[in-house]
Amino acid sequence: MVLFPMLFIKNRRYKQNIEKSQNVNKERMERAKLIEMPQLEHFELTFLVEQKVEFGFLGAPGVSYLIKTDHGSLLFDLGYCPEMPALTHNATKLGFKMDQLSALAISHLHPDHMRGFKAVRENQITVPPEFGRSDRIPCFLPV
Question: For each successive 10 residues of the chain (143 residues), what is the average pLDDT?
Fold first, then answer.
């Protein structure tokens, strides 16, 4: 008998949270302005972590992309690492180091984008130590 009221309350909270997030996103979209982007001479996208991979690389359900342009380099997301070693393995195989980066960006705060369940629990993003120091690289996170 307790289960029904508890499910009713959870469902109501869920619907309220959906409505709240839709309103927040709508407000953000209304405030958003056009961003002038510089013209690029060079754009390179390297898939560090993806589900489907070529021979010799490790696949995982998370993602991590290395974006290089003539204006700098960005590491976009960190995958599940260290729970799944795909990021460390693939990046090491490609010779990736943190000193190649201008910035790090995390698309959203789920384990498969911000380096695993421990990162989510501790609300802390860390870069694998094998990549070198990252304390001087800006990290862009969602609110």
Answer: 80 92 90 88 93 92 91 89 84 88 87 76 79 79 76
SS3 119: helix
Q: What is the CATH number of domain 43-140?
A: 3.60.15.10
Residue 88, C-beta contacts closer than 8 angstroms, at least 6 positions apart: 81, 82, 128, 130
Q: What span, in angstroms and rounded, lies between the C-alpha atoms of 140 and 80?
A: 18
Going through the chain in order, the beta strands assigned E by DSSP cover 43-49, 64-69, 72-76, 103-105, 139-140
Q: Are strands 139-140 and 103-105 parallel, antiparallel or unpaired?
A: parallel
Report how far residue 46's alpha carbon sits from residue 82's, in angstroms, rounded to the nearest whole number: 20
Nearest in space to 108 (alpha carbons), one of 98, 119, 99: 119
